[in-house]
Amino acid sequence: MTYTYFLPDENGTPKEFQTEKNSIVIIGANGSGKSRLGEWIEKQDEIKVHRIGAQRALNLQEHITPRSYEQAMNLLLSGSEETQSTHRVRWGSSYRNGQYIYSLSELQDFEYVLSALLAKQNLQMEEYINRCREKDKISQRHEAVPDMVFDQLEKIWKLVFPQRDIELHDAKILAKFINNNNDEIKYSGSFMSDGERVALYLIAQALCVPEKRTIIIDEPEIHLHRSIIDRLWGEIEREREDCLFIYITHDAEFAASHSQSDLIWVKNYDGTYWQYEKITKDEIPEELLVEILGNRKPILFVEGDRRSLDFLLYSEVYKNYYIVPCGSCTNVILQTKAMKDNERMHYLDCYGLIDRDYRSEDEINSLKNDHIYTLDVAEVENLFIVEEVLILVNKILGYTDDTNVKNFENYIIDDLYQSRLNDQIINAIISEIKYRLSKLPITVKTESDINLILDDIKNRLEVDKIFEEKKKLYNEVLESKNYNSILSNFNSKDIAKYAGKFFSLRSDSFCDFVIRQFHGEYDNKFIEAISKYLPKEIPL
User: Fold this and answer.
1) Is residue 409 domain-shared with residue 285, that is, in the same domain?
2) % of the chain with per-residue pLDDT over 70
3) Taking CA 143 as the corner, what is the angle to CA 139 and CA 144, rounded to the nearest 5 degrees?
4) DSSP assignment of 477-500, as one string?
5) What's the mean pLDDT when you consider all of the chain?
6) On the CB side of 7, how many CA atoms lie within 13 Å of its CA?
7) Residue 89 sits in which domain range?
8) Measured between alpha carbons, how far is 151 from 133 in angstroms, rounded to an integer?
9) How far apart (Å, rounded) are the C-alpha atoms in residues 50 and 232?
10) Whose CA is closest to 423, among 355, 489, 498?
11) Are residues 389 and 309 in the same domain?
């Protein structure tokens, strides 16, 4: 099936597009003009386009007002009981600069939506009964009861809320479930949760809209839990394959989950004209791409995921950046390079920030050429226990001297680092060998070349020299007793948890305690403390 839609060209003139997909995602940053574009699409054909705004009043009365099908549909589509050719009544729009504005209004049509649902159900039942009567007159067997609109709603509802049922009875919407005592509990729609109400509203809207319409949904993710969004819209789209769905969002996760949809990126809107681009897959992963398109801030690629210390800490320190967690340091490097080399993204500043780990100065300097920078400490966990942070924690907890700070630092130097010294040296040697191997040009033309190459690699790697250099470095760090030097070279993910017992905190809560301080009166002091160990090339 082919679907047709219109977008404005560079002169604001409607331009026809076609797609074989029944959903389109329009993504862009806040303020990029996405909602106004949705309004523009709606106004091109207000008979065939039905738009659901982001601002929706979800107040639900206990009883549905019965109306004729014609009245109910007119109210749903245009806000008036009489057939209308525009949506001005529905949106209660204001008149500005010679035009009616729809995109700023709040929809207050939940009653109309449910009234249309009830009216459509009644009409379908009436039509079925009439068909049965005609069959009875000529003694023919009539058809089984077909699925009606409420059957469709129940089907979608059950897939989205498997622990809840929904029913329509005596012009009332009821939800029900079985409790732990195996009792059936029923409650009216007015007592539904926000998520249940918005799901009911959206499902009913989509099921009641006449055939072969374009349905625009502004912020399809709003008020919905992340776990049900994909199921909800996926099922609605399957039930209404005759309709084209256009989603308007800045939510990257929503856009990424709709990987089978056409993707349109709205770059800018000057009040008259839009800049937009249809996006196709390229060297940047699609999920990452839509994340980037949804914002205008400089991009900072970091290690970990959205629950990791990297993301939690950098989100507090780099407040003016869009933080993208990439998992491994290898992914940070690859994605930063891809972003930097992508002409489409030339307008955005991008950086990669990774742990120092066991990297040599040569490797660190090489990464800087691609805007990838390292911490001045070995691991992100070490940022939580730099001396400046320890002093702040000590003060917040009410200690009057620095005994706790000194005791912890001595423990790290004399106990923890010293006991793990040999492991640190070995891991540093392995890391350096891997790096040097990655830089060696290796060309094999014949089988006999292999042994020659292996001998050449061994000589060029200078493994014995690497061993002596690393052993000397890590022993000198230990002998120096310099706490900052220890943190720069001590690679251990569990290092910060040992701080808890020195400050009467649980070992698993120390980092969480530090993160919470970024939302208190000491937030700027913590940023200042940690920023000393962050790369100066990434401006705060």
Assistant:
1) no
2) 92
3) 130
4) HHHHT-HHHHHHH---TTGGGGGG
5) 89
6) 17
7) 1-295
8) 22
9) 19
10) 489
11) yes
Nearest in space to 342 (alpha carbons), one of 280, 270, 295: 280
119 and 145 in one domain?
yes
What does the pLDDT look like over 146-186, one tens digit per residue?
A: 999 999 999 999 999 988 899 988 899 988 888 888 888 88
Distance CA 501, CA 489 (A): 23
CB 409 within 8 A of CB 417: no
Residues 347 and 448 in one domain: yes
- For 483-509, letters b (16+ CB in 10 Å) and e give bbebbbbbbbeebbbbbbebbebeeee
DSSP category for residue 298: P
- Do 82 and 201 lie in one domain? The reply is yes
For 244-295, give the DSSP string: EEEEEE--HHHHHH-TTSEEEEEEEE-SS-EEEEEE---SS-HHHHHHHHT-
Q: Which of 244, 228, 249, 245 is nearest to 160 (CA)?
A: 228
- Per-residue pLDDT tens digits for 406-423: 999 999 999 999 999 999
CB neighbours (10 Å) of residue 84? 16
pLDDT on residue 445: 64
Residue 267 pLDDT: 85
Q: Are residues 319 and 200 in the same domain?
A: no
- Is residue 43 within 8 Å of residue 281, measured between CB atoms? no
Q: Cα 349 from chain centroid?
A: 20
Q: Which amino acid is at 233?
A: W
Residue 503 Cα distances to 40, 196, 404, 499, 511, angstroms? 59, 45, 7, 7, 12
Q: What percent of the chain has pLDDT over 90?
A: 60
Q: Are residues 224 and 242 in the same domain?
A: yes
The tally of domains found in the chain comes to: 2
Helix ranges (DSSP H) in 387-448? 387-396, 403-410, 418-419, 421-439
